[in-house]
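Late entry, evening session. Most of the bench is empty. Finally got around to the prediction I had been postponing all week. Sequence below, unchanged from the version circulated by S.P.
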Amino acid sequence: EPIAPPTPEPQVTVAPHLAKQAMQTLIIEPGPVNFESDSTRLVSDSVHYLNRLARVLADNRHLFERVRVVGHADQRGTDNYNNALSQRRAETIAKSLKSAGLTPTQLKSVGRGKTELLTDSMAPSALQKNRRVELQFEGVKNQVALKHLIDSLSR
């Protein structure tokens, strides 16, 4: 019985300007940067980490053009309330990055409320995971170096 030849994998083509943009963007969820419930106050473990992260990013700001600080909230509370809270959380982190030496033109704060949950669970540890920030680096000059620097902080 003859064996059919394998079907070729579909080829995905990305427009050159989009491919370049993708190569220059790096999204990091800084591990231990979480907030207390209904607050912009960091949980105690996060303060030291954030200070170290801010110093490393300021010392290596030549590796990227901008950082978008994206704040998130857990699923409790109204959409309007969580949108405002997540925006304030993003601004809290951006303020720390600015204090360490990043310029205002390198920082943008965005609040996403509860639109991008990591988990739907109502367990306290799950809720804490949703109360977070993400750092989206734009115009990255060296992804490997930047990722290595950030990863080295959590060791």
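Two things to note before I forget:
The chain is about 40% helix and 15% strand.
The first helix runs from residue 16 to 23.
Will write this up properly tomorrow.
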